[in-house]
Amino acid sequence: MNQENRYGREALVAGVVFVILAAISVIPLFTLWVVWLMPIPLIVFTVLNKPKIPPLLAVLSAGCLLLSGFGWSAFMFGLGIYFMGWVVGESLRKAESPYSPIIVGTLVMVMLEMVLLALIRFSGVDIFSSLSQQISAALTRDHTQMQLLHLDAQQVQQLAADTTAWIRMMMPSLLVVFAFLFSALNFLLSRSILTGEQAVRQPLLSTWRLPNSVVGVYVLALTFLMFGLLKDQPFWWQTVQNVVFLAGFFLGIQGIAYLWRKLRQSPGRYVWLTLLILGSSLRIVGDVYILLGLIDSANRVRRV
In whole angstroms, how far apart are CA 110 and each of 18, 66, 84, 233, 275? Predict the structure, then answer.
């Protein structure tokens, strides 16, 4: 396949992806999920050096979100989508490190999340109250689950309230984790459309190395958490909780990266990678990944 045909195929795939995402985005049930993936075709067209297409797609994306009820914030999302497509696309085109565009993309995603939360708040919806009601309603409807958990109606209400309180406290770190995952997903899915040299130059997991300071911050915050220090000061206690969660998340990725470096030459390596990622949803497995991440970071420091 010559270069011209390859570029044509990639542009066609990116165009089809945009049409699908735009069509789904006007369906209210799916809008809040699809909007985070809309930079993908813009990234591809930026890599293909077609500078006139990404701004047009960003405007069309904003129009779709406007129809979906985003109001004037749709144009803020359109700007964020364009910026995300430009930053990640330029990085792929120049074969730079993937981490800088993912970090910048995460910041853009966090900004869009804050805009979305503000939009929901200004529309008169109490996010946490609605969330508590939905959790309670979901558990109440599922009588089998209530029986398995040995919960009565009053305990269901308490569980919903406790879960909502935890989400409220951990909201800053949850927003960052969500933004990071979707930023990385945009990068990976865009690269999967590209079949040229941009698709193979920038490994993520095999080169994943956290700064040593992350380990120190994690250990310090975990010490405060274990001994209940600053528990009587709500702001600092929330900060400690979020630092432990966020640092643990990135150390968990370090642990997965360590295992991936051991498995990447083995047959069925992508099956193993999928199982490793799925296993992270289990608390005990996630803790093992964090431990491996700490060990891997410590070994790297000792080698230096």
Answer: 22, 20, 12, 26, 28
- Whether the pTM exceeds 0.90: the reply is no
- Per-residue pLDDT tens, the chain, 304 aa: give them: 456 666 688 899 999 999 999 999 988 888 888 999 999 999 999 988 888 999 999 999 999 999 888 888 889 899 989 999 998 888 777 766 778 888 888 988 998 888 888 888 787 778 888 888 887 777 676 666 566 666 667 777 888 888 889 999 999 999 999 999 999 999 889 988 887 655 555 678 888 888 888 999 999 999 999 998 888 999 999 999 999 999 999 999 999 999 998 888 888 888 988 898 898 888 899 999 999 999 998 887 555 5
CB 102 within 8 A of CB 93: no
Give the DSSP H/E element, type plus range, for residue 295. helix 283-303
* Residues written for the chain: 304
Rounded distance between C-alpha atoms, residue 128 and residue 44, angstroms: 37
* Residues 61, 91, 275, 35, Cα dihedral to 10°: -10
Residue with tokens 């730079």: 96
Helix%, strand%, coil% for the chain, nearest 5 = 80, 0, 20
Which residues does 301 contact at the CB level (< 8 Å), separation at least 6? 212
Rounded distance between C-alpha atoms, residue 39 and residue 29, angstroms: 20
**Which residues, 6 or more positions from 49, have their beta carbon under 8 angstroms from its beta carbon?**
93
Contact indicator for 106, 88 with CB cutoff of 8 Å:
no
